[in-house]
Write a structure and sequence with these properties.
Structural class: mainly beta
Strand content: over 45%
Number of helices: 0
Number of strands: 11
Helix content: under 10%
């Protein structure tokens, strides 16, 4: 079992920045694909960004490209999401997740390859 705890959410003005953190405990997540997803009010949970097990590959939803950066620090057993130029439509609960070992790179955009999810952290962007 692995536990994930997100932090760093909050309320910001449009154009502002936030850095979300995802701390893993219980076991290492080194070598496992990781992802960030978000769920806005009255909408389905959607993919935001993913990072490969070794941290060498990243992929972003079109809505996040050029504004968000996913990274990981294996020594800290943590994953991060730097969010810049925030827009009101970024308002959502943000979740991090750990994929099953050996999941293909392309599959990391799919919710069904993730075994563990954090509790989520609220991000609110005001206009």
């Amino acid at each position: 079992q692995v536990q994930l705890v997100e932090s760093g959410g909050g309320r910001v003005q449009a154009g502002g920045s936030l850095r979300l953190s995802c701390a893993a405990s219980g076991r290492t997540v080194n070598g496992y694909g990781m992802g960030w997803f978000r769920q806005a009010p009255e909408k389905e949970r959607e993919f935001v960004a993913s990072i490969s097990g070794a941290g060498g590959l990243t992929y972003y939803a079109d809505s996040a490209k050029g504004r968000f950066t996913i990274s990981r620090d294996n020594a800290k057993n943590a994953v991060y999401l730097q969010m810049n130029s925030l827009k009101p439509e970024d308002t959502a609960i943000y979740y991090c997740a750990v994929a099953r070992y050996g999941s293909s790179w392309s599959s990391l955009q799919r919710k069904d390859v993730y075994d563990y999810w954090g509790q989520g952290t609220q991000v609110t962007v005001s206009s």
